[in-house]
Specification:
The protein has about 100 residues and is mostly helical. The protein has one domain: ACP-like (Non-ribosomal Peptide Synthetase Peptidyl Carrier Protein, Chain A). Helices cover about 45% and strands about 0% of the residues. The protein contains 3 helices and no strands. Helix 1 packs across helix 2 and helix 1 packs across helix 3. The longest helix is centred in the last third of the chain and has 18 residues. The radius of gyration is 17 Å and the shape is globular. It comes from Polaromonas naphthalenivorans (strain CJ2). Keywords: Phosphopantetheine, Phosphoprotein. InterPro entries: ACP-like_sf (IPR036736), PP-bd_ACP (IPR009081), Ppantetheine_attach_site (IPR006162). This is Phosphopantetheine-binding protein.
Length: about 100
């Protein structure tokens, strides 16, 4: 299974002509030559690639890992809104019955 980080790295490699060995979670975007306008462009591509909508509020994304975590959060919100079941672990309390079944 491809992770969000892997998919993000593929976008960065394709759109910014970066080498895979440059792309680590802690790598600052600025060190890759991606400034604030570049981040905005990256996020538009992320919207299309991941099928998510970005919130209007600004968010500080300094590293590749920050962007991947931001995407994961938006994917979780999207999946919750669509009624998707939890991906792993125990069901959340809201979906569990309050009393045992007879």
């Amino acid at each position: 299974m491809t992770t969000t980080f892997d998919r993000l790295c593929a976008i960065l490699a394709r759109d910014y002509k970066l080498q895979a060995d440059q792309l680590m979670p802690g790598t600052p975007l600025e060190s890759l030559g991606i400034d604030s306008l570049g981040i905005a462009d990256l996020l538009f591509n992320v919207e299309d690639e991941f099928g998510i909508s970005l919130p209007p509020e600004p968010v500080q994304l300094l590293t590749i890992g920050d962007v991947a975590r931001f995407i994961d959060g938006l994917l979780a919100i999207r999946d919750d809104a669509n009624g998707a079941p939890p991906k792993a672990g125990l069901p959340d309390a809201a979906s569990s019955p309050a009393t045992p079944l007879p």
